[in-house]
Amino acid sequence: METYNILNSISSIKNNYNLNFKGKIIDAHVHCGQWNYDKFSCENVIDFFSKKFNNGKDYVDRVIISNLDCIKNGKNNKPLKDEINGNLLLLKAAIKNKKFIPFVVCQPGHGSAENIEILLNKYPDIIKGFKFHPACLGLAANDVRYIPYMKLAEKYNKPCLFHSEVLSDEAGNILRNGVSDPDFIYETAKQFPNVPVILGHMGLGGDKAHKVGINTLLKSIENDDAKLYADLAWVDWDNPTKPNIIYVIDKLLHTPKGDMTSRLLFGTDAPLGVFGEKALKQQGAYDANIRNIKNAIKNNFGADANTLISRIFYRNSKKLLNKQNINLTD
């Protein structure tokens, strides 16, 4: 990885501390609804993200959010709520709270693109994107049943967020046949090169899995045949040095197409896991994750750190959403 002068790094930390750690954030991967034994109402999520964080400076301005009720399977291996009723709960909440940037959940194999178009016609100014979860659908992300939904995304200029995940066996060997494999998502995205497609979790499954997600992202950029992005939900969540995040930033800075760090988005999957359960009462893990990512960027990228932090935590999502008529300011 290209290294940066340590003196410049220290100077950057001193000169830009307030700017780097006093900024608006767009969390590109958030949920409401039910997951296992946890249930997060829209009101709970609004309350969580309306609070200042422990460092007293950063705050989350907007969240890209989808309803887990349309993702989590219940009886007969079907989603708890269908495309109409589950998405309506979130859309009605989003009308009342501008913090929400709702992505409607699509259910190929269970629902229909016609359902989503009904919602688009009824809430044209509220729906900002589509969410797909191949793992819960049990449907490979390159299946033809995604195509009608992707055609809608193209027609209405909506970005799409896919859950991406790379499986491994007991020995830790990477398996390339998981339904949410980044390359499967890439195959679908290539058919719609004008539709922004986000690899949620950048290939969930640990260090080796993230490298697969990163390689897919870089391949799409080099080939210039799909508009792939990646979010950082669960990436290095338990490692304060954020090695995979630093690695992907460095790779994106030096692609054959130049600086492509615009393709990386901050996200968490809140309020799930360590960002959930107790997260609605305490924000320690969420706040620590923000601080650790920012510090890791500062420690590795010196004079470029301020720009990178601004992009990853806010400006990249803002640019991605610029066709969605959202009042986002610098």
Provide a descriptive summary of the structure in words:
The protein is an alpha/beta fold. The protein has a single domain, classed as TIM Barrel (Alpha-Beta Barrel), CATH 3.20.20. Helices cover 40% and strands 18% of the residues. Helix 1 crosses helix 11, helix 3 packs parallel to helix 4 and helix 10 packs across helix 11. The radius of gyration is 19 Å and the shape is globular. The two termini are 31 Å apart. The N terminus is likely disordered.
- Structural class call reads alpha/beta
> Per DSSP, what share of the residues sits in E-state strands of 2 or more residues?
15-25%
Distance between the termini: 31 Å
Q: What is the approximate shape? A: globular
Average pLDDT number: 90
Map the helices and strands.
Blueprint: H1 6-20, E1 24-35, E2 38-40, H2 42-49, E3 59-67, H3 83-96, E4 100-105, H4 113-122, E5 129-132, H5 134-137, H6 147-155, E6 160-165, E7 167-168, E8 174-175, H7 182-190, E9 196-204, H8 207-223, E10 227-231, H9 243-253, E11 264-265, H10 284-301, H11 305-320
Parallel strand pairs: 1-3, 3-4, 4-5, 5-6, 6-9, 9-10, 10-11
Antiparallel strand pairs: 1-2, 7-8
